[in-house]
Design brief:
This protein is of the alpha+beta class. Helices cover about 20% and strands about 25% of the residues. Strands 18-19-20-21-25-24-23-22 form an eight-stranded mixed β-sheet, with no helix packed on it. Strands 3-28-27-26 form a four-stranded antiparallel β-sheet, with no helix packed on it. A hairpin with a 4-residue loop joins strand 11 and strand 12. Helix 3 crosses helix 4. The longest helix has 16 residues.
Length: about 625
């Protein structure tokens, strides 16, 4: 589990969610350096002290809050009076959430409502990350706010794309996009990527439990909280106010409003110290700790060596021949694959697997519909379960079920797309989508996680549709290819972790973010000759903060498999690995990335041959490779 996931789980257990601005998930400030040109995440001095609350980040500031508490405590004689506290404000409340997210709808409108129809004074708006850190850590005694989750995955909240007029500061600066630290080089995506890497760093992993003790643990209340300078106004704590015993309706409404607007401390989850995370490293100074590999596997980027994440190494582990769904095909091309009890199961080119039920759809027949069959089960293999005629007005050219098997998206020879719900027996038409020019639909992907359908056609266009509203969202704008005319879309694939969209148009791959912005493109120098061109491609679920990870895999007409990463400085796709073992010698027709850790790849080709490729771990590398890693363990190559 990543540190981000750990904190989100704690927020969830403590009753905090995105659905309630007054109890929004709370995250810590991680970094303390927002002024340097470059930042070294291996340097402990760039991090905030996670053992102390924001009010105690500096000794001078801590002394002032300590004096306040002692002064209030000296005048506290009656239990009916409010108990003493260090901070008159809180680290999380609805106003702070809107302060950070005011550039995004619907938070912009909510911020306007909070301020009576206009944005707050420009000097008080969120316009500079470094200034906000200085305010919360040293300069402003009324400011002890922490962060929100968006700082670690959503660069859009830092950009004023909606062109709101936030006014001008007293120094004459127009408030527009958020001013980033110098090490972000003016790029919000770079800031979020580095910020997330900082959250997942060894330093934070070793010290995060100290911050958790303050917010969710034993230092939240009582003597430990007083000693840690971590007490707030009593109404912010769960169970400290009995609303049922407040008989005066005006006072009761006033107390509720104070609780909702002032801030609420999360429910306390633990009354003893949280344990420190065990941070393991496989590559030691002169040796390798093979026992650490099991713990490192979930945090290793897709298709990188467990224990040496800067290296990519895939090896074929098994192969088989596709026999299911082949009847009536003009060739033996594989269309889809999955693993069942360690055995690879594949279906023909005009078939698509329903993964949860181990059934498959067959399409492309003259009935303009589909049939549903058993994919596994011995004598049940290929048995027809149901037939659905006339789903389109022309033959179906491509079919894509959702990963959960509940949705089915079909593309037709007449360029229409239809969205269906499958209940295990009947098909229910949800919508017909039109947007592609003349020509068949060639590729589809669907994500229920992000509520998104992506379709590619023979017209070369790639369109994005909203699965929830079943409406058109956008057309992806691909870079112009000089000297190349209209080329059909070959593959589209969605990253199920961040919503990035990979496209293969002709022989060129590109990567877009969920909002349709180009993230990276293939270099012109990587153009392929006809005999080496890609025949299909698939995206992995690599998060953007794992810079070494593989984001896309291409299969080629000569049987090659190539793995691609992103050079974020140049915004280009770079080939990280060419499979050395030549198991396939004809066009690759199907690829599927499997396993939670994204370390296994299923490959199918035109001859019906299927194979499983797996990432190697350190304990399975040859001895000479291990020696190379030890000699060059600090070098990313």
């Amino acid at each position: 589990m990543t540190n981000f996931d750990f904190i989100m789980q704690l927020n969830s257990f403590a009753g905090r969610s995105y659905n309630d601005l007054t109890q929004y998930p709370v995250f810590p400030w991680i970094l303390a350096d927002y002024d340097s040109e470059e930042i070294d995440l291996n340097d402990p001095s760039v991090y905030r002290d996670l053992s102390k609350p924001m009010g105690a980040q500096g000794e001078t500031r801590a002394a002032q809050f300590r004096e306040r508490y002692e002064a209030l405590e000296s005048n506290y004689f009656n239990e009916d009076e409010p108990p003493p506290f260090h901070y008159g404000t809180h680290y999380s409340c609805a106003a702070y959430v809107l302060y950070y997210l005011m550039r995004l709808e619907p938070f912009s409108r909510l911020a306007l409502t909070l301020q009576g129809g206009r944005f707050d004074v420009a000097d008080r708006l969120f316009h500079n990350i470094g200034a906000s850190w200085r305010s919360a850590s040293k300069e402003n005694l009324q400011d002890v706010r922490e962060l929100i989750p968006e700082f670690f995955y959503l660069p859009d909240f830092l950009v004023n794309k909606n062109m709101f007029d936030f006014g001008t500061t007293q120094l004459g600066k127009t408030v527009h996009d958020v001013t980033l630290p110098r090490w972000a080089k003016g790029d919000p995506k770079r800031f979020v990527r580095i910020h997330r890497q900082a959250l997942e760093s060894d330093y934070v992993s070793k010290n995060l439990h100290r911050w958790v003790d303050l917010v969710f643990g034993y230092k939240q209340r009582g003597k430990e909280a007083v000693a840690a300078l971590n007490t707030f106004v009593h109404v912010t704590y769960e169970g400290q106010v009995d609303l049922d015993n407040i008989k005066d309706p005006i006072q009761r409404e006033s107390t509720i409003a104070q609780i909702q607007n002032f801030g609420q401390t999360p429910s306390r989850l633990e009354r003893k110290p949280f344990p420190q995370r065990n941070v393991v490293v496989a590559l030691k100074e002169k040796s390798i700790d093979f026992n650490a590999l099991h713990g490192l596997a979930p945090l290793t980027p897709p298709f990188c060596i467990v224990g040496a994440p800067h290296r990519v190494y895939l090896k074929f582990s098994m192969w088989d021949t596709c026999r299911v769904g082949m009847a009536g095909q003009v060739d033996s091309s594989v269309g889809d694959m999955c693993l069942v009890k360690g055995q690879i199961i594949g279906v023909g080119r005009t078939c698509a697997l329903i993964l949860p039920s181990k059934k498959y759809y067959r399409y492309g027949g003259p009935n303009n519909g589909i049939s549903v069959h058993h994919a596994v089960g011995g004598y049940k293999e290929n048995r027809v379960l149901s037939i659905h005629d006339d789903m389109h007005r022309a033959p179906i050219s491509v079919l894509k079920p959702s990963l959960n098997g509940l949705w089915l998206v079909s593309g037709c020879m007449d360029s229409t797309i239809r969205v269906w719900k499958y209940d295990g027996g009947n098909m229910h038409l949800q919508a017909t989508l039109c947007g592609h020019d003349n020509g068949k639909i060639t590729c589809i992907d669907v994500s229920t996680t992000f509520g998104m359908i992506v379709t590619g056609g023979a017209d070369g266009n790639v369109l994005v549709w909203d699965l929830r509203t079943l409406t058109f969202m956008r057309k992806l704008r691909h870079p112009t290819l000089k000297g190349i005319g209209e080329t059909a879309a070959v593959s589209v694939s969605i990253n199920q972790k961040n919503g990035n969209i990979m496209t293969l148009i002709g022989s060129r791959i590109c990567l877009f973010d969920i909002n349709g912005n180009l993230v990276a493109k293939q270099q012109s120098s990587d153009e392929f000759a006809i005999k080496h061109r890609p025949s299909c491609a698939v995206a992995t679920d690599c998060p953007e903060w794992m810079e070494n990870g593989i984001v896309a895999i291409t299969g080629h007409v000569n049987g090659d498999l190539r793995l691609w990463s992103i050079d974020y400085d140049e915004n280009i796709l770079i080939m990280r690995h060419l499979m050395p073992d030549k198991v396939h010698s004809c066009p690759i027709t199907a690829l599927r990335v499997i396993s939670d850790n994204q370390h296994s790849l299923l490959v199918g080709d035109k001859s019906g041959k299927m194979s499983v490729c797996k990432t190697l771990s350190l304990d399975s590398l040859p001895q000479n490779e291990l020696q190379r890693l030890l000699l060059r363990k600090d070098e990313a190559y």
